[in-house]
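Hi R.,

Here's the chain you asked about this morning:
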Amino acid sequence: MELELAPVEIRVLGSLIEKERTTPDYYPLTLNALAAACNQKSNREPVMTLTEAEITQALDNLRAKHLVWLRSDAGARVPKYEHNLATYLGLADAECAVLCVLMLRGPQTVGEIRSRTGRMHEFSNLKAVEETLASLISWTDGPLVKELSRQPGRKESRFTHLLAGEHFTAEEKMPESNSSSSNEPRDDRESGRIARLEEEVRHLDQELKALKQDFSAFKEQFQ
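And here is the predicted structure, written out as tokens:
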């Protein structure tokens, strides 16, 4: 099954899936909240800076493919969006979680997938992740995931989604960045860790502001 989704469509769809499972009280998402989710500096690879116009176009494309629904509840002033990927493909909870992290963070090893899906689905062990990957690789209507060739210097294979077809980005073919190498000076690694934490705090502040705006719009309905 080749959906041939564009990078922005993949980011939008992945963000909707993630927020449905990690912040269900604020799902479906408004355009404002979705933009904040798409442009997160943490848990995203690559980091994107998408405009609302770009996100809106991606949403229109995804709606045409029946992968996203527009929610306009009676009395609501702000439209919201929800994904339909799990229903469209017939995905189980574990399968949807694995696809989500691959969409948001690129190719990953079995261990990375297990650690990064924790808030969406808790795998009991690595074997459970491998079984889910095997299911997605042997999907009835065509593979949804592919195992990449092991790169020089890597001990484990990585897996990538195929929602953009068989075309891999340059990032997927590049060797792992040396930024996390054990040869990197400790002070540099510590600075990098602090920088990532600061970015995450800034992102959380951005999401909080978006949620406050949504709540204010909701309150106005009763005034």
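One quick note: The beta strands are 29-30, 68-71, 80-83, 145-147, 159-161, 163-166.

Cheers,
M.
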